[in-house]
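Researcher: Let's try something more involved. This one mixes different molecule types, so please make sure each is placed in the same coordinate frame as the others.
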Amino acid sequence: MKHKVATTVNGRRHEHEVEPRLLLVHYLRDNLGLTGTHIGCDTSQCGACTILVDGQAVKSCTMFAVQAEGKSLTTIEGMAKDGELHPIQQAFWDEHGLQCGYCTPGFIMAASYLLSQNPNPTEDEIRKGLEGNLCRCTGYVNIIKAVQTAAKTMGGAEAKPSERAAARRS
Amino acid sequence: MAVTTMIGARIHRREDPKLVTGHGSYVDDLRQVGMLYMSVVRSAQAHARIKSIDITDAGKAPGVVAIYTARDFKTMISGGLPVTESLIADKKYVPNQFPIAETEVVYFGEPVAVVLASERYQAADAAEQVQVDYEPLPVVVDFEKAMQKGSDKAHSDGPDNIAWDVKFPGGDIEAAFKEADVVVKERILQQRVFPLSMEPRVVMANYVPFGNQLTLWTSTQVPHFVRIFLCFGLGIPESQIRVISPDVGGGFGSKLRPYPEEYLAAAASKLSGSPVKWVETRTENLQATTHGRGHIFDIEVAAKRDGTLLGLKVTNLSDNGAYVGVFGALQSALSLFLAPGCYKWKAFDGRTVGILSNKMSTDPYRGAGRPEAAHLVERAVDLVAHELKMDPADVRRKNFPTEKEFPFTNPLGMVYDSGNYAKTLDKAMQIVGYQELRRRQAELRKQGRYLGIGLSTYVEICGVGPSAATDHVSGSISLVESSIVRVHPTGSVTVAVGTHSHGQGHDTTFSQIVADTLGVPYESVQINHGDTSDTPFGYGTYGSRSLPVGGISIYKSCQKVVDKAKKIAAHMLEAAEADVVFDQGRFHVKGSPDRAKTMGEVAFRAHQTGLPDGMEEGLEAVTYFDPPNFTWPFGAHICVVEVDPETGAVDIQKYVAVDDCGNVINPMIVDGQIHGGVAQAIGQALFEEVVYAEDTGQLRTGTLLDYSIPGIGEIPDLELDRTITPSPTNDLGVKGVGEAGTIAASAAVINAVVDALSPLGIKHVDMPASPDRLWKMMQEARK
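Model: All components are placed in one shared frame. Result:
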């Protein structure tokens, strides 16, 4: 039996009838054609499929599509606006934070959540914040630099004032 | 017009904008109308006879279109997967591998049937309902035991488990050992590891029946190489097969061979009349994508009391798995050719034994034989230093060839093109603060703390490969690399190459070479790779060969273009060709820089009438480059660790890498390659190990829950520097850098761990140096 799922993805509304067991990541890739979200494992270790669900970083292989009912999702395709790269995307480019690019969308989405919660993370906080994502190419050195650079350019712009204050306190 | 010196510049990668915005196109991002999904039923046994395969229930499952077994595929596929047997001088037993098992399965995860269904989940569901009845056979897991006479056999119809047994002698080894004041022996393990590219393998095949045309999209490092073997296997002319390898999410050597699933998807498309896609799950990737390493090395080192190295004996036992990998013998041989490392030995003696077991094949993994070589020789030197109570840096320095001794010939006749080994070591020691670290180590030891400093001074072999050196081992194959450089009428440039980029940034590096050599704007250069329909034949990307072989091919094609353009420019300028100078994209008459034509103007004229007499229109050139020698990058890595005396946990406190890959085209990309390589070697040194159950041959490390690759918390900041010793073997003086980090780093880490634990009398530690292993060793040593 199929179930209706209505979501907003990157600002656009979608409605589909899907099998209840359909993983959100397959819904995004196969039903919506948003193939920037990747799959790198079967067990939720790699983080290549990370997206934002109502602003929170979620590995989209750990959710069923039907659980996204009524939610607002952001995938990597929704990050660049008006032909301009998002500062995190720009920073990954500038700092050579990617090689094969397969894990990159997941890292950018996880970094986006991290910076929304903690606009000026220390190196340790970046390492902790991104521990759910794996990369086999870069040795992470330039990924850390990219997140630091993004934090600088964004100047805390993504964080809500209350969260910024909370981050300063912590 | 932006004509500047691009070679050597830190240019941001042109590949990146599409990749950071989710617009890459990896094979699973593509689809065909009417496409079916293929799911592979894999053996749940490591060794068994197939009594029967019952597809009744699976055939009735929703969405199922077809189920095929070996019987169906035998009508479509002939022969087996390729193996480079030519290195196996004294060939023993190399079983033929058909892409799917018919009567006997020989490793856990071997394909036994495929299911085609309309949807992804339906194919997976139905595959679980295929019933295979197995009669278990004795399982061979321990490959050292498998060598012994009377051992159980990995293939029931094989004579034994010995794939090859070859000796590589180099000089009078007995004389060298007679001179020795000390002889040290050690067994050094190279555990199996997963290459584990983040993108698993994916194949999509579309066979068009009435034209006998096959298009195969596959996540591979070697599209042209795959096409050759599909041609042989499927009997379709090479010209009618198009292999496309679009964006590829990493390979690390695990995607440089034809795989069973490529044959099966292509044949399944032919059998079913529909396009077919197969997407490897990570679980399948760990079972059925080739593994790396998997060796035992027994070494004996002879040295004088003053630290002079004399002789090195190495016996390599290689765990091939059930089928000899396509390059399995090659990497074992490489591990011996490079085992002398960057030292002057009087003699060397090597032997490699290839052994079959009921496991997945081992094949190249980043470095392919050279990490094994560097690891064993760097351990050997440290063992000598320990025995003689000398500083390991002093033993190394004493035995390096000096700068003046290049080209330097190692005992197996390999000719190292250029090097300055002492310089990289000095630089690394200065950056890390070596003397101060030794003082601090002594202080901490008094407090019962274990600080260790590990050196690795490596040399490696890149630029595979010159026919002069590879001819006799490759069966007359010359591993050339190719390029077509075409200047369009309006002056922009398309370059088509036989190499393949899957993270290395070739689009950027190659464009830098072209922009400089032709004097055209960088932005006007387009690089095509990965599609056999619009690129010349090439062997693909591995062995750090793309720049020193493929890049030089591009440079030579550009030179040919400049030569022709010069003739046209002379004609346009009404000057003698000898009087025309080419400088930064402009052709001008000697002494009159204002009388000039740009490359763009010449290109336009090249497509018009009025060319010099007898000259054809067009401005393009083709080069198949066969290098005169390999290239020999080198470097010095130093790792500083502290081992927790209570838990055995290793904390990497500092990591310094000074590498020399000759001239550098893009320093940012070169640094990135070192970072990634070092991280993978740290993974092998501290965390990673493929484990098969000794009794059943089941894969115990079957998911990323059970197998740990380094995460962002486990790799320290890496301090990089370099020296530049140009290679004399090619026009650009480049050497290649893709594998250097992996080759150097495992020895640096393990030497540091051993150094840390040396107060306990520990002389050697095997990989992975996990807390569990170290804790046990410390407990034992303290007894």
